[in-house]
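Trying the structure run again after the queue cleared.
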Amino acid sequence: MSLNFKTVLLLLVNSLFVAALSGQDLTRARKVMDTLASPSMYGRGYVSNGTGIAADYIAGEMKKSGLKPLTTDYKQNFTTNIKTYPGPVNLSINGKELKAGTDFALITGTPSVKGTFKIQAIDSTWFIKNTRIQKLNKKDLSNTLIMYNPSEMKGKIKRLADSLFRYNYLKCAGFIHIIDKPTISWSVMAPADPFEFPVLTVLKSSLPRNPRKAHVLIELKVIPDYKLTNVIGYLPGTTVTADINGFTSNNAVADSFVVVTAHYDHLGMLGKDAMFPGANDNASGTAMMLDMAEYYSRPENRQPFGMIFIAFAGEELGLKGSNYCAESSPFDLKKVKFLINLDMVGTGSEGITVVNGEQLPAFYERMVKINSENEYVVKVAKRGESCNSDHCPFYKKGVPAIFIYSNGKEHLEYHNIYDQAARVPFTEYEDIFRLIRDFINTL
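Done. Tokens:
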């Protein structure tokens, strides 16, 4: 009995030692993801200062890990205009109350609106020879919402439907788009100017039969010069000869450095009740970035080159934070050896994808070789250039940069209220961490 206990204890200690050497801390990563995706962060958006609360938390985690502040209090502040919905976002159809985030959403930029409207349903047949649409054009539709399913519109008919929506030449009160999917999604991307009419998206499964009348109450709040914050910390390389302030002075830093990034913002709140947690997108990537920062802060893991870790704001608004950082960089972009951006790494059963793998073949093949030798993930796929995450503004500036995301059907929730921390499996988190760690160590 005693021997078995000692054996078990030895195996446990050994496993903990191996985990410590490998670097990743799954418990800590989950805690970070859980915290960022919790109700206390309000979806890391623009209601109740969700993004500001998250920035303070991340700065605190960087400080705990021993990272140096590259800017005052680790923060790089900038401003942008925000369109948000902190007040009522209510919709009922035929007297049936629909829930924001569960049954319906809206296209950001939808103006404030209050009223009861008729519903006119149309389908693709209305655009054949355009005769039925022309008949509608003779009617007063100022109190009518046009409802149709965009996914049913194909080819020429789709172009006609898009034109109707874009220009609203029928002068209707607004539009309802039927969504033929299991969940409703939302985006905070918005046009420069608010729409002149509401555009609602409603799940087909949530619609009552024969929808005829809708009551709508929506409150848009436009906030000019809303403060957003990139959070930046760094670790000097072991060969650095410049002082700490060398990163921010006009003098060149003695060494080159590697940058690891992830955006921490998400969609926030739609109305008073619908919170979009953004656990996989991108609390998971932020957790891995902070996990790597903690790993490389240990003396035994420090590299000859310096390392900079950045949590970007405003990615969901259109790469606002990374664009600002690339344009107003507090470090010399010419000194960057490599930049790795992490965005949605909570799965992995089908491997990972490397965006810019085709543009940087030598680096991509090096990662493939490391993976093959260690059998970390089932596949390291590659994609070409794509400006779909925060690597892009730096790549455009000449920085060798890739964007890594995990693949797998075990968690497909995206931009909806179900992207929750408890649902993110972290299937291959540890091996993705090891793969990236080994790759960084070769740079």
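Residues 78 and 157 are 43 Å apart (CA to CA). Worth checking whether this holds up in the mutant runs.
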